[in-house]
C-alpha cells in the first residue's frame, strides 16, 4: 500500500489509520502509537519486540523490530 493511503478496520470499531510509509505487500504497520519494547503480534502470534517507538501508520520491519522467531537455518 502506498503512503497517504487510509486503511479502515470495521472489526476494530471503525478504526482508520493513515499510512506514513509505503508498505510492501505482506509487511506490517502499526494500528496505534506503540512504545519501545512492546511486543508485535501477527495473526495472533508474538513475532518480535520494538526497538524504538512507532507511530500509528508507520511501517514495522527489521529497522524497528527485533524478531522473537528463530530462523530454520540458524542453530
Automatic annotation (TrEMBL):
<feature type="domain" description="SAF">
    <location>
        <begin position="14"/>
        <end position="66"/>
    </location>
</feature>
<keyword id="KW-0456">Lyase</keyword>
<protein>
    <recommendedName>
        <fullName>SAF domain-containing protein</fullName>
    </recommendedName>
</protein>
<dbReference type="GO" id="GO:0016829">
    <property type="term" value="F:lyase activity"/>
</dbReference>
<dbReference type="Pfam" id="PF08666">
    <property type="entry name" value="SAF"/>
</dbReference>
<dbReference type="InterPro" id="IPR013974">
    <property type="entry name" value="SAF"/>
</dbReference>
<dbReference type="InterPro" id="IPR044144">
    <property type="entry name" value="SAF_UxaA/GarD"/>
</dbReference>
Amino acid at each position: 500500500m502506498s503512503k497517504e493511503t487510509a486503511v479502515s478496520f470495521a472489526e476494530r470499531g471503525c478504526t482508520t489509520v493513515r499510512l506514513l510509509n509505503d508498505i510492501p505487500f505482506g509487511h506490517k504497520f502499526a494500528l496505534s502509537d506503540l512504545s519501545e519494547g512492546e511486543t508485535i503480534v501477527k495473526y495472533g502470534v508474538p513475532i518480535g519486540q520494538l526497538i524504538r517507538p512507532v507511530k500509528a501508520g508507520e511501517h514495522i520491519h527489521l529497522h524497528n523490530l527485533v524478531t522473537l522467531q528463530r530462523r530454520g537455518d540458524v542453530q
